[in-house]
Amino acid sequence: MNSRQRRGVILLLLSVVCALGAFAGVLSVISDVKSKVGPEVAAYRVKSNVAPYTQLSAGQFEKIEMPERWLSDNAVTNLREIRGKIAVTTLRKGSLLQSDMIVDQPALQAGEQEIAILIDAATGVAGKITPGSTVNVYATFEGRRDSDPDQSKLIVANARVIHVGEQTALRPDEDDRRREPTDAVPITFALKTVDAQRITYAESFAEEVRLALVAPGGGSGVDATDRTYELAKDK
Fold first, then answer.
1. H helix intervals, the chain
2. Cα distance between residue 89 and residue 86, in whole Å
3. CA torsion sign, 189 to 193 to 195 to 200?
4. Which of 149, 198, 217, 228 has CA 20 to 30 A from 100's CA?
5. Which tens digits make up the pLDDT trace of 124-163?
């Protein structure tokens, strides 16, 4: 082996040593990063904005992996935790789901029963009534005779909403061609027996049933003189 060949072999060996040194350095950096970051765990990110008091489902969230040490103690790491829960505030798209963002869905209290009726989506709901809302239920009735006045009545005051269903398209009966097809939303209330009877009667016999959202902390009592309205008696 001549001197030129020896120099080539030496340079090749030096290149190999340098490459091994660089590789070892990279492995050292990766190991150091892993030791600082720690193991990764599952977390859940909100896909799109979720309105307050909305019942939660797995489809509203996407699973991601992130270092465990970067998660807060109240981060949700298992979607079983959202069963029977609703959002207490607006869940923003891209935010991580945490246990303090959700609460148990309102349940029935002693003496209450669930009852659902269909409410016109445009005039009775308007997207603002959600589980946990308190509403007044109004109904309008035609006079039984031509001489009887039409009336608007407060059927149930401070009814508690526990569920809002999906909007559904309704078509009028074949013998009622005056009405246009409408969209309705099933609203479920938690009511005492007498109020359940009142709201069932209104859905069956009233010309129209509307809901009025009651402000949080609003008064619970309604004067008897304010429960029935007639245009002729309006001063």
1. 3-37, 193-205
2. 9
3. positive
4. 217
5. 666 678 888 889 999 998 877 777 788 889 999 999 888 8
pLDDT for position 71: 80
Distance in Å from the first CA to the final CA of the chain: 120
**How far apart (Å, rounded) are the C-alpha atoms in residues 130 and 232?**
35
Which letter does DSSP use for residue 232 in this model? G
What does the block give as tokens for 19? 């490459």
Please report where in the chains the tokens 């009887």 appear, as a residue.
Answer: 148
Which conformational region is residue 53 in: left (phi greater than 0), alpha (psi within -120 to 50 degrees), or beta?
Answer: left
Amino acid (one-letter) located at 114: E
At residue 202, does pLDDT exceed 60? Answer: yes
Please give the angle made by the CA atoms of 218, 132 and 96, to the nearest 5 degrees.
Answer: 125
Q: Which two tokens stand for residue 49?
A: 């904005």
The domain made up of 40-104 has a fold known as Type Iii Antifreeze Protein Isoform Hplc 12 (3.90.1210)
Instruction: Give, for 169, the enclosing helix (H) or strand (E).
Output: strand 168-170
Domains of the chain, residue spans: 40-104, 113-233
Structure tokens at 56: 């939660």
Tokens for 89?
């505030």
Rg (CA), the chain: 32
